[in-house]
Specification:
Shape: globular
Bound molecules: arginine, zinc ion
Structural class: alpha+beta
Distance between the termini: 16 Å
Number of helices: 28
Strand content: 15-25%
Largest sheet: 8 strands, mixed
């Protein structure tokens, strides 16, 4: 991957000075690098502002006669040596993006390259490369942060062996970590501590990591299936030692699960995790040394919610699973990002399903997909799971690459069956271990292991947009046959005007109107549930032995990431909701009914005709609430409503406030339907047992808090119940439950509790994030002013990404009613500009909040576009990251940019 030379930054710290628009790079241009670095010995002399890095690399040639270009920026080049001969400045070409050694200056064969650079970790606010979080030193190299440490072939297809010597600042830096095994440690002649690490596994530069500082450690061990002992170590800031248990336990369960489910054993003698307070993302799978946002490690009952616990478990698993899917087998280039992310998300989702409940986990994942990925796929930032071009790869760590990418793996598992899928991954590991490969390599392994033709399936990786599938069924009583016609259509997305038919697995079952599961015959197989495959624009599927006109249950467990259009009456919906044999689909129908009601309430013309539906809907969900056989978490999903962001997709020229009001009207109707029943159900969720993060307890609390939110709506007098809920609680889940239940209504009790909450947790930054987020999410009419004034709060800082996300991010992405207003657009744009100067990755992410403006009432979308155009006029001052998001949001495609 050759970076465009047209980008001419002066210096990252002084802002970006560019005279032309940045150029995209293309998948089709992929070429191996002319050189390869096979081994690298790094030495770091850590210093707050002048860290010196000496890199000695073994280099070999892939092609003869070419110049050697190494990626690198934002550092001072001190010296370059080829085979111990120092090159003078006239012997190399240094730009603000790379370093080129002319072919003529290089030996014909292999050679040694030594490069000395100096970097400034303390002033690295981008949190990419080597930076500081508090007093500790840490790194984040994915995707292209290593090039801020030394000049290197900073692309994933260059896999090298690493040896790393860390020299600490002084004796106050006892912990010095890097990838692999520690082979030496001691004190140098100046009394500075040092440690030497060696990683026996070849790896791409994005998996390099180092950590140094004065940290506490929580230790344990794991015995692998073959009987090897692995030391497990979690490093945290002093004072957090008592918050590592859950993370450690999750790690051990992940290691066991990967052995049992995928036959994957860990491959080093030590596995380390470090929790860092200032981190751009969730976590990072560096070989043997995972670095985590502290939010996804630290937990104790008083500070972490059940959701935090679940996230910790899932993200620990995710990063651990990367050891095989990502690290042992990595991506050839960054276009293949979904190869490691989609597969690893699929694996962590299955893990959580096994640890907790596979039904509610599936519901959770589908909610996420619909709330984050479908809108992306239908908007100006739509891109294929494997993009074909990008300006900044960091902008492609998206719901499409991760979550839709996971759905593609899941579809393969649905089609091949669990065993077939396992054969496919076995073959993939066998063929490609130690290599940097492509999506085709993965899919081909699946095809070869199963004998199934997956050539059309590959389209899922290439074609953006969510397919719309329309279903139409006809029953032929005389023949006992049910004919199901399915047709598919994917709308154009930017750069892809016409789409072709995809290969879609559909899980189908027929149910009799009286509620009996029907066993029908399809393709010679007699079963209740069938897997059929839609490959054409339109196809007919015939089910035999059907003795009465059936209800049809489609895309069971959400067997494909599509939008279903089914001609089904409201009566049939209620009937199906009652008789579904698949609990996930029962949930889907409840959501569809709720959606229909909300959209009718939104529209003046239909508003008055739906009272019966509202009553029937309330009756149906109350029935589920009172059925003791259901999992409480499942119940809480069943009584929940589709999100505003999801509903916005369903209306033309949407007015968010009006849609919110329609949604609120149904929510209030649910609350008012039978408050006594709600209170009774709520009482059943109460328990005086001490907090336990176990799933069975978490699910009980989830329902309790959901019910509390309805109860508080039913009558203002129930605010006192919420206050008691808060005061009786011994855990953060219930405290947050009480506060969020009260937050919509606001008022005295809410204000009092929020103040107390702040005083209690003032010292605890992860909890204070929650306090900021609650306020950013508020529906109070003056929330924008509140958010503005919180910028001046003593605990607000632009330098901590968690804090920025909890205030500005939650407002822009999570408070859609109040974000979609002209004043708020201007405010967020101004915040994005401030952030961009410090941390372009976080700024660009914030800017994606604007990608839904195409849905809005023209007056609003016009205002938003004006704000964005104004930002784009500052072209020479904004980062590539931000430029790409704004440019595309305004309708420019990568092609136009070129
Ligand atoms: N690979 C990491 C993960 O999925 C995320 C790294 C994010 N990096 C980035 N440049 N966006 O766990
Ligand atoms: Zn990942």
């Amino acid at each position: 991957i050759v970076l465009s030379r047209k980008l001419c930054y002066e210096n990252e710290k002084r802002g970006f000075m560019r005279d032309t628009a940045p150029m995209p790079i293309y998948l089709k241009d992929y070429q191996k690098h002319a050189f390869e670095i096979t081994d690298i010995a790094l030495e770091f002399e850590l210093h707050p502002t002048e860290t010196q890095v000496t890199a000695v690399s073994k280099v070999s040639r892939n092609r003869k006669g070419e110049d050697f270009t190494l990626d690198g920026h934002s550092m001072i080049l001190k010296a370059v040596y080829v085979d111990d001969q120092q090159l003078s400045e006239s012997n190399y070409i240094l730009t603000d993006q790379d370093l080129t050694l002319p072919s003529a200056r290089l030996p014909e064969g292999d050679f040694t390259l030594k490069i000395v650079t100096q970097i400034d970790p303390s002033n690295n606010t981008s949190l990419e490369g080597l930076y500081r979080s508090g007093t500790m030193y840490c790194t984040q190299c994915e995707s292209q942060g290593f090039r801020k440490i030394t000049y290197f072939i900073d692309r994933p297809d260059n896999m090298a062996r690493y040896r790393v010597k860390l020299i600490g600042e002084d004796d106050k830096m006892p912990v010095l970590l890097s990838n692999g095994h520690k082979i030496e440690e001691g004190q140098d002649k100046n009394g500075r501590p040092y440690a030497v690490w060696e990683d026996p596994h070849k790896k791409p530069s994005y998996l390099f990591a180092l950590v140094a500082g004065d940290l506490a450690v929580h230790k344990d061990k794991f015995t692998t299936q073959s009987g090897r002992d692995v030391a497990l170590e979690i490093y945290v800031e002093h004072g957090n030692e008592d918050r590592c248990d859950y993370a450690m336990d999750s790690l051990k369960r992940s290691m066991r699960w990967d052995e049992e489910k995928y036959g994957r054993e860990y491959d080093l003698d030590i596995f380390m995790i470090v929790a860092v307070s200032d981190f751009n993302f969730g976590a990072m799978e560096n070989k043997g040394l995972n670095i985590f946002n502290a939010k996804y490690i630290l937990a104790k009952s008083e500070t972490a919610t059940d959701t935090d616990y679940e996230n910790i478990e899932a993200i620990i698993a995710h990063e651990y699973f990367h050891n095989w899917t990502g690290n042992r087998i990595t991506c050839r280039d960054w276009f293949q990002l979904c190869l490691k992310e989609g597969l690893t998300v699929f694996r962590d989702q299955s893990f959580t399903g096994d640890m907790r409940s596979s039904i509610t986990k599936r519901i959770d994942d589908v909610i996420m997909l619909r709330n984050a990925q479908f809108p992306e796929d239908a908007g100006p930032l739509a891109h294929p799971v494997r993009p074909e071009s990008y300006i900044e790869i960091n902008n492609f760590y998206t719901a499409t690459v991760y979550e839709k990418g996971a759905e593609l793996c899941r579809m393969l598992a649905v089609m091949l069956g669990q065993e077939g899928f396992r054969k496919g991954t076995d073959l993939f590991f066998e063929r490609f271990d130690g290599m940097a490969v492509t999506v085709e390599d993965f899919v081909q392994s699946m095809a070869d292991a199963s004998g199934k033709d997956l050539s059309q399936f590959l389209l899922w990786y290439k074609q953006a947009g969510t397919p719309h599938v329309t279903a139409h069924g006809v029953y032929h009583a005389d023949q006992g046959r049910y004919h199901l016609t399915l047709s598919q259509k994917t709308h154009p997305t930017q750069g892809q005007d016409s789409k072709v038919a995809m290969h879609i697995p559909v899980l189908v079952a027929l149910i009799s109107p009286s509620g009996e599961p029907i066993t029908s015959e399809y393709a010679g197989k007699s079963a209740h549930e069938h897997m059929i495959e839609l490959k054409e624009d339109k196809a007919e599927f015939i089910f035999e032995n059907v003795s009465e006109a059936p209800l049809v249950s489609l895309f069971r467990d959400f067997s494909a990431p599509i939008i279903l259009h089914q001609d089904i009456s409201t009566e049939e919906c209620f009937l199906l909701m009652q008789h579904e044999t698949n609990p996930f689909n029962a949930y889907e129908i409840a959501q569809n009914i709720a959606e229909g009601i909300i959209l009718s309430l939104y529209d003046e013309q239909t508003r008055s005709d739906i009272e019966n539906d509202v009553t029937a809907y309330c009756a149906a969900i109350y029935k589920i609430l009172q059925n003791e056989t259901y999992d409480p978490l499942y119940k809480s999903y069943m009584i929940g409503l589709p999100s505003l962001g999801y509903l916005m997709q369903k209306v033309k020229n949407v007015q968010p406030q009006k849609l919110y009001d329609a949604r609120t009207a149904l929510r209030d109707a649910i609350a008012a339907y039978d408050p006594d029943a709600l209170i009774e159900a709520y009482q059943k969720t109460r328990s005086d047992k001490a907090f336990d993060p176990a799933p069975s307890e978490a699910t009980r609390r989830a329902l309790g808090n959901k019910l509390l939110s309805y109860i508080v709506l039913a009558d203002a007098k129930f605010s006192a119940r919420a206050e008691a809920h808060y005061r009786e609680s011994d855990n953060m889940t219930d405290m947050m439950g009480a506060l969020s239940a009260l937050s919509d209504r606001g008022g005295e009790i809410y204000n009092k509790l929020m103040q107390e909450f702040f005083v209690t947790y003032e010292k605890d930054q992860l909890v204070i994030d929650k306090w900021f987020a609650l306020q950013a999410r508020s529906q109070a009419s003056d929330v924008l002013d509140q958010v503005k004034s919180l910028l001046n709060h003593k605990d607000f800082t632009y330098k901590n990404p968690n804090r920025v996300r909890s205030l500005i991010g939650v407002f822009a992405h999570g408070n859609l009613v109040h974000f979609h207003k002209p004043d708020a657009y201007a405010f967020i744009a101004e915040q994005i500009l401030i952030l961009d100067k410090l941390n372009p990755k976080t700024a660009a992410r914030m800017a994606t909040a604007f990608d839904q403006i195409h849905l809005l009432d023209p007056a609003l979308s016009h205002a938003a576009r004006g704000v964005l155009e104004h930002l784009l006029e500052k072209k020479s001052e904004i980062s590539n990251d931000l430029y790409e998001i704004i440019f595309k949001t305004l309708g420019g495609s990568a092609k136009i940019a070129a």
